[in-house]
Design a protein that fits this description.
It is a single chain. Helices cover 44% and strands 13% of the residues. It is built from eleven helices and five strands; from the N terminus they run αααββαβααββααααα. The chain has a five-stranded antiparallel beta sheet. β1 and β2 form a beta hairpin. α2 runs parallel beside α7. The longest helix has 21 residues. The protein is globular and about 60 Å long.
């Protein structure tokens, strides 16, 4: 006799390692959370990715950042598509939010990282002093920003987003000042980072995406409602907005996600279609 569904769920839960604290459990959680990130480019995508990276370490107040940017062979940052930072602890305080916003502004202004990632590495992962080949890592462009957040030596991960090799997914994870990350963090990040980069490629695409084409928080809420099968009126009631406003958000989503139908919107939201793929021709909107 088959066990009842509740028993099945209980057995599956007991067998899953994602409630543990070992390296395997940490890796499973990371990959699951990376795969749960939006499959489309949302304005908070980088911050959510940074939050996942930060939780690779069990240390309280571990800090992390994630960015998609173009980096020249000499380490010059040519452009920043998106960047976000987060702490492993939640909820964050108002001062944390201010520091997070300040880091984003400062990173956008950084002209040189202090190192150049290897585009052939899949991924390149090491502490910052190894990347910079110097013990004075704190004086580098990225190092200064890390120390301003009152953090110690960071571990860096970088991986090319495309075959051209100048567009990178870049991440850093750092302990509180006076502490050090566990040696296992480098191995965990090396194993887990490709899953995060694959999700980033799906969300932001192989080529740079203009900022106005990124999905806003309100649009993402509307898209989430559509994925759940809700009508425009139901979504409007949930969000406390008029149906007309929600219709405007849906139109904007069609434009931003290059979708010609409600089905294409949902397929993109679920990661089944890239921006370049159409189910129907444009004259069947």
């Amino acid at each position: 006799m088959n066990p009842p569904p509740a028993a099945v769920r209980s057995a599956e839960s007991a067998a899953r390692p994602d409630q543990g604290t070992g390296n395997a459990a940490v890796l499973v959680r990371f990959v699951e959370q990376a795969c749960a990130l939006p499959a489309v480019a949302t304005v908070d995508w980088a911050s959510r990715a940074a939050s996942i990276v930060a939780r690779l370490s069990p240390l309280s107040r571990t800090w992390a950042m994630f960015a998609v940017c173009e980096i020249a062979p000499d380490g010059k940052v040519d452009s920043v598509e998106t960047v976000g930072s987060a702490w492993s602890d939640s909820p964050t305080s108002p001062s944390d939010a201010q520091a997070r916003d300040a880091f984003v502004d400062q990173f956008i202004e950084v002209r040189r990282l202090g190192f150049a990632p290897d585009p052939a590495a899949a991924p390149a992962v090491s502490d910052l002093s190894t990347f910079t080949r110097s013990t004075d890592w704190a004086s580098t462009g990225l190092g200064r920003l890390v120390t301003q957040n009152r953090c110690g030596m960071p571990v860096i991960a970088a991986m090319a987003m495309s075959s051209e090799g100048r567009r990178f997914a870049l991440s850093a994870i750092a302990p509180p000042q006076g502490s050090a990350l566990e040696p296992s963090v480098i191995g965990l990040l090396k194993a887990a980072f490709p899953s995060l980069v694959r999700r980033a490629r799906l969300a932001v695409g192989e080529q740079p995406l203009p900022r106005p084409m990124w999905v806003s928080e309100r649009e993402r809420a509307v898209l989430d409602g559509l994925v759940l099968g809700k009508s425009v009126r139901q979504i409007a009631e949930d969000l406390g907005r008029s149906p007309h406003t929600v219709h405007d958000h849906v139109k904007s989503l069609h434009r931003k996600l290059n979708a010609s139908s409600r089905g294409e919107l949902i397929a993109r939201a679920l990661g089944h279609l890239t921006r370049a793929t159409r189910i129907r021709s444009k004259d069947h909107v």
